[in-house]
Task: structure prediction
Amino acid sequence: MATDISQPRTRAPRPSIGVVEWLRQNLFSNWWNSLISIVLLIIISQVLWGLFRWIIGSEGWIAVASNVRLILLGRYPSAEVWRPQLIVAMASLLLGLSGGIWRGIPLSLAAGFSGIMLLLGFVSFAMPASETPLPISTTLFLFGTAALGAAGIAAAWRLRDMLRWPVVAGWLLLYPVAILILHGSGGDTTIGTNLWGGLLLTLLLSVSGIVLSFPLGILLALGRRSKLPVIKWFCVGYIELIRGVPLVTLLFMASLMLPLFLPAEVRIDAVVRAIVAVTLFSAAYLAENVRGGLQSLPRGQTEAAQALGLNPVQITLLITLPQALRAVLPVLVGQFIALFKDTSLVVIIGLTDLLGAAQAIYTQPQWLGIPGGVWRETFFVVAGIYWVFTFTMSRTARKIESNLNVGR
Amino acid sequence: MSNQTTDDIIVCEGVNKWFGEFQALKDVSIRVKKGEVVVICGPSGSGKSTFIRTINRLEEHQEGRIFVDGIEMTNDIRNIDMIRREVGMVFQQFNLFPHLTVLQNVTLAPLWVRKKTRKESEAKAMELLNRVGIVEQALKYPGQLSGGQQQRVAIARALAMEPRIMLFDEPTSALDPEMVKEVLDVMKTLARGGITMLCVTHEMGFAREVADRVVFMDHGMIVEENTPDTFFTNPRHERTKLFLSQIL
Result:
């Protein structure tokens, strides 16, 4: 059949079929396809109905509701809850300011965070007084945090140029300041890290792990490509050794064996030991990912930079490393997501992180009367919290990726 | 330094280079005067790219001596740095930095190597981009430009260091045919402007028009060098004749 080329089409033909036609083509094209579709529909609807009834009707939610503090903070003393609250408020303000200054991704993060706080504020406000262990101040705190975020956006929207550097400084200071506030000033008001737990501990471990392993991993990657044999073989040895063992063994080494080797007076905090183990572990993987990125660059990039007279440090910092990090961004985010979830292994060395809190809750004696226990509800909520964080990370990463792809 | 007249800006004496067992350069000696435009041609694998890459130490030579603007190319990093400041280079594959805008590509070296102010380097960069005819693309990324435009940016980037010598390593070989002219035009303007140029290229029209000298290399050796007129009309060596018959 001859094609009519005298009238070019303005665009490629787009298949458009109705819902009924789509169903017929894809799910009910012949008798056994139809049979499979019907069976699957029945199973899926059963599962969904069961899930729905469980969510609405289960008595177990009370265990979660009355242990919110344990999930979020572990055994952190209730009289000192203002400390983490203060940090969250500061973070919300900084996030809001960043959103106002840089717009784009920070803005959606700030808006999302304030939105969640606002929503939680309503939830805590609406909870009947008899069931809620939450003091009224929690509601105020949640609304306040949301308001701070919004105020930050509004303020930075106008004073964009003035606030840029103070906000960067604020982010850099947030981590040490947060540790100081959480730990207290010493003496009676010191809150030992053995009391830190729940989401607080999970976030502490993963933020520390990510922030510390990032530069360490980059140094290892560069070291492995070094021309100096001592540096090169040290990095190769380190990477291959760490990658050859599971994280659990590193955690055990850090928590059980390290104290044996050190003199009795030298006691390193259990949380610090866990952070060190997680960081060392993550850095080895990060180094290999970054090295992959460096390897993928064409040699011409370095040659062009050399021909311009840039020195090796400048070539690394200005030319190769930025490109390598861009190339491996998706992999790095994947690794950080894995790290975030892997911190749950610290349960094994006796720390009560988010997962540890879940275990602590369903073994509480007061829920023995509830048929089937409360572990389903507890793990459901804890898994939900993990998911919210990892999903945010991966969405943010994807947005950053598409921003970086502009002009390529 | 051995009997170098003040006019010679590049002096190579008996340069030898091996890649493992393979000898890429055999006893290459050449003198280039200030402001001279030299075209180097020859079959692929003849060592012409390797040769011009020894002049700014992208390749290390193992025997012989190379002087650039009176500085001897040694293993001393300071000498290498000094020479690289005098020598700009344009590559076959452009080698622009894809993560930087056109303007950032051009200002990078003045900012970090010459330690000029941002204002100064940007003014100079815009002037150069104007000269190569792509000033309106200054804020785009290399990936958004055509091959010919990218190569012109690469020329501007090299010129931003205000080099006294420009090396061109097959600058038009990776271009679509319709873009070759725009790059050659920029190179011709440069050549007439008095800068010293060493061009590895197969563009014989360019050689005829602006070269002061044409050098023919084969198997790592300089087989023949002459003025373009004599080179094209009256080549002496059989290999030169064969090469010319194949490409003209």
Remarks:
- Residues 192-407 of chain A form a domain with the MetI-like fold fold (CATH 1.10.3720.10).
